[in-house]
Structures are given as structure tokens and as C-alpha cells.
Amino acid sequence: MVQDSKGKTIRAKTTAKVSLKKYNNTFSYSTVSFVDYDKVKKVTYKTSTSTQAYTRASTKSKLTARNYKGKLVNVKVPAKNAVKKHNTSWYKDSFNYTTYVKTKGKWVKKTKTATVYIPAKYVKKYISNVWTKYTKKAKGYFYTPQPITITLKEYNKVAIGMTYKQVVAITGEKMTLSYDSSWNETVYDDDFEEIGEIIHTNTSYEWNYENDVTYDFRYVDFYFEDNKLTSKNQFGLK
Question: What integer is the mean pLDDT of 74-79?
Fold first, then answer.
């Protein structure tokens, strides 16, 4: 869970596609990028009142303009105008102001921009908490349940005596080898003369499905002797 630009708690979303790795039958994971907003203390400086603007950090350098009659007037910065600290005595800002320029005998209104300076005594410090955007990375887990590949109907079709390949042909699932052993049987003829050996095998294959979200658990076990199914067990198949 993360915060949005207004501080509301929401679910995190990835900012780009990622390749997932299997964690279990229910979840996959990957390192993902996501957007989160953190509350950050922000300091701003604003003019406390409408005050004279200066072209340099000096009270001898007033910014002036012409009014619609062509009269020279002082330019003032309005209250609550954001400024930046220049030094301990002065603050400054890039400021748009209006002046009039005489064109063809008429005073025509123009907008100009200038870097202006304001004495520190007319500036107030404001502290606020701002939700600031960050792009972060973390290992994320995603609900990606694996398909259920062995059903009760398929299980019931599996008969004792079938080979492993025959069982797989029905279930469509290559199971996990959970047990494997072998032993040799010596073969004798009627005169009790040794004529060779037969290798016997005992193997067990299992398959399971787990969904921790829905509490769905399913299990299958098949036991083979000499590649012939001799027993089978299941739990939770549907």
C-alpha cells in the first residue's frame, strides 16, 4: 500500500511491465518500480505585504514603470508573492509587471519581466507538509494461481496396472518424482543355475495444488512397481 498525491492510502501499481518468477502455486514475484508519495516538510518564503520592488539588493534601486498617462510610478510586489532567499537581508523573485510604452503618440500597455529584490523585513517564512512524488523499487508479489491440471474425472480414469506414460496421457500432467528405488533379482533355471538378473523398480509420483487465498488444497499420489501402477491416492480433487 502507498499514498497518492493527496495522502490517501491506495494499492501500489507497477510503472512498467516485468517478468515474473514463480513463488508457489498461488503467487509470483519480481522486483518492480512503483510510485509513492511521502510527506515532506517544505519551507517557502512569501511577501507579508505589498511592498516596493528593487532592481538590485539596495533601497536606492527602486523598480519603476509608466502608468497609462505616462507618469513614472513605483512597482510593488503584491502580498503572498513567493520569493527566494538572496542573503540574510534580501529576497528575490522573477516578477512580471505592467508598464506603458509610448507608441505613435499613445501610451500602450506592455508586460515586462524583471528580477526584483525585496527587503527581508517584508518577507515571512511558511512551513508546510507537501506530498512529494517518488519512484521506488521493491520485491512485489502477485496473485497468479496456477491452472488446475488434474481433475477428479481424470483421476478416476486411471486404472491399476497402467504405466506411467499411460497415466500421464490421461491426466495431461507430468508429476514430480517423489520416491525412486530399485533392487536386483537373481534368476535361476530349473537346475538352480544362475542365468541372469532382473532389475525391479519402485517409484512414486505426486502432484499438488495449493491456493492460500481460497484455501484450496489438492493432492495426487501414484505408486508404481516395475512401471505398473499398484496404488493411487488423492485429496481434494473436484
Answer: 96
